[in-house]
Specification:
Helix content: 25-40%
Structural class: alpha/beta
Number of helices: 9
Radius of gyration: 24 Å
CATH topology of the largest domain: Purple Acid Phosphatase, chain A, domain 2
Number of domains: 2
CATH superfamily of the largest domain: Metallo-dependent phosphatases
CATH architecture of the largest domain: 4-Layer Sandwich
CATH class of the largest domain: Alpha Beta
Largest sheet: 6 strands, mixed
Distance between the termini: 71 Å
Number of strands: 15
C-alpha cells in the first residue's frame, strides 16, 4: 500500500492586504500562521510516515518570493526528505513565473514536475504533473499529460479550476469526466480553496483546499488530505490543519441601555469564539438601533485586548427590523426598489469593476461581482442605522 499526504495552495508570502487594512494585528498573525501551518503539515507527513508529500501548486503567492520565504520552504521540505518523505510539487498560476532552481538545486527527493520533466517514479508509483509557465492558462492541460505507466500506480498533479467554481477564474479548465477517464488512479488537484473529492469507480480526484485560510471567504478551508492506494479503489481522509480559523458571531445589542452593557455583551459573545490551542478571527454581526459599525468595532477591539487567541475580522451592524419608523421604513423601501432597477445594477457593476481595476489584486475579492448584493445591503443597513441613531438621541 502507498500512503500520500496531499496539499496545495499554501500561498506563502501572501500580503494578506484586505484583512491587514482592517486589522494589522490579524494580518501579521495570518502571515505567521501560513508558515506555522506548513511546519504542522510536514510534521504530519513525518509522524504518519507517508510515502510522499504532494503539493499541487500555488506554494508561493507570487513568482518573486523573498529569499527568506524560499529558504523556509526548502528547509521544511529537506526536513521531510531527511525523515524519508519525498516531495512532489508543481507550480500553479500564482507562482507560475518562479524559477525554483534560481538559487541552486531544491534538494534530494524534492521533485518539481514541469513540461521538461513531467514524470517521476517513486517506489511502485509514477507521478505526473505540469507546471504553469504563465500566470493564466485558458486551455486544458490534460492533452499534454503523459499516459499512464504500465504496471505502476499513476498519480497526476494538476492546478485547475476544473469545470469552474464560484469565485474562481477559469484557470486551465478541464472537464471532470475527461480527467477521470485519463487512466490515472489518483488526481491531486489545486486552485480551488474549498476541499472536495470526486470518485468514479476506481479513480479518485482530491482537492485538498487551502490549508491556512487567509480571509473569511476561505473559511471552509483549513485541511489536507491523506490518500491510501492499494489494489482496491483509493481511500481518503481529510485532516484539519491550520493555526487560525474564521468564524461568525451574532449579537443583539438593541436592548443595551449604556456602553458598559454593550461591553459586557461583546465580551460574553467574543469569549464563546475562543478555541483552546487555536486562533480565531471573528466576523461580528450586530443588531443595534444606537451603536454604529465604527463604534462597535472600536469597543470590540478594546474587549479583545483581554481575550487571548481571538481577533476581530470585521463588524457588520444593522438596526432591528421591528423598530423601524414610518419615515425610515419608506426610505429603506425606496432604496431596495432602486436596487432592483436593472439600470442601477449595471451602473453599480461598472463602478465595482472600476474599483477592482484600481485595487491591488490581493484585495479584489472584497469587491468581486458576486459580492455586489451583500455590499449594497450593508450600505443600506448603515444608512438605516444612522437614521435610527438620529431618532434615538
Amino acid at each position: 500500500m502507498m500512503r500520500l499526504l496531499v496539499s496545495a495552495d499554501l500561498h506563502l508570502g501572501s500580503p494578506i492586504r484586505s484583512v491587514a487594512l482592517r486589522n494589522p494585528n490579524l494580518g501579521d498573525r495570518l502571515k505567521q500562521a501560513s508558515r506555522d501551518t506548513l511546519v504542522e503539515i510536514v510534521d504530519l507527513s513525518i509522524s504518519e510516515q507517508v510515502d510522499a508529500f504532494v503539493l499541487a501548486g500555488d506554494i508561493f503567492d507570487n513568482g518573486y518570493p523573498d529569499l527568506k520565504s524560499r529558504a523556509f520552504l526548502i528547509t521544511q521540505l529537506v526536513r521531510a526528505s531527511e525523515a524519508g518523505v519525498p516531495t512532489v510539487l508543481i507550480r500553479g498560476n500564482h507562482d507560475a513565473l518562479l524559477d525554483h532552481n534560481a538559487h541552486g538545486d531544491l534538494g534530494p527527493n524534492i521533485h518539481l514536475l514541469h513540461k521538461g520533466a513531467p514524470t517521476v517514479e517513486i517506489g511502485d508509483a509514477a507521478f505526473h504533473g505540469l507546471s504553469f509557465d504563465t500566470a493564466h492558462v485558458s486551455k486544458s492541460f490534460l492533452p499534454d499529460y503523459p499516459g499512464p505507466v504500465p504496471g505502476k500506480r499513476n498519480i497526476g498533479l494538476m492546478h485547475t479550476s476544473l469545470n469552474g467554481a464560484p469565485g474562481h477564474d477559469p484557470y486551465a479548465p478541464c472537464a471532470e469526466a475527461d480527467l477521470m477517464a485519463h487512466g490515472f488512479d489518483l488526481w491531486c488537484l489545486g486552485h480551488i480553496h474549498a476541499p472536495f473529492e470526486r470518485v468514479d469507480g476506481p479513480v479518485l480526484a482530491v482537492m485538498p483546499g487551502i490549508p491556512q485560510p487567509r480571509h473569511f471567504g476561505e473559511r471552509n478551508g483549513g485541511t489536507v488530505t491523506f490518500v491510501s492506494l492499494d489494489k482496491r479503489a483509493p481511500e481518503f481522509e481529510r485532516r484539519a490543519v491550520g493555526r487560525l480559523g474564521f468564524s461568525e458571531c451574532s449579537l443583539d445589542l438593541s436592548a443595551c441601555s449604556d456602553q458598559q452593557e454593550v461591553l459586557r455583551n461583546l465580551r460574553d459573545g467574543l469569549l464563546t469564539a475562543q478555541v483552546p490551542g487555536h486562533d480565531v478571527a471573528v466576523r461580528l454581526h450586530v443588531t443595534s438601533d444606537r451603536y454604529s459599525t465604527e463604534l462597535v468595532t472600536e469597543l470590540a477591539s478594546e474587549v479583545l485586548e483581554t481575550i487571548d487567541g481571538v481577533f476581530l475580522d470585521k463588524v457588520r451592524s444593522a438596526p432591528p427590523v421591528s423598530q423601524a419608523g414610518t419615515e425610515t421604513d419608506d426610505l429603506v423601501r425606496l432604496m431596495h426598489e432602486e436596487l432592483a432597477e436593472e439600470g442601477f445594477r449595471q451602473a453599480a457593476l461598472l463602478q465595482l469593476e472600476e474599483l477592482r481595476l484600481a485595487m491591488p489584486s490581493e484585495i479584489t475579492d472584497e469587491v468581486a461581482e458576486d459580492s455586489l448584493d451583500a455590499l449594497l445591503e450593508e450600505a443600506i443597513a448603515e444608512v438605516s442605522l444612522t437614521l435610527h441613531a438620529g431618532k434615538s438621541q
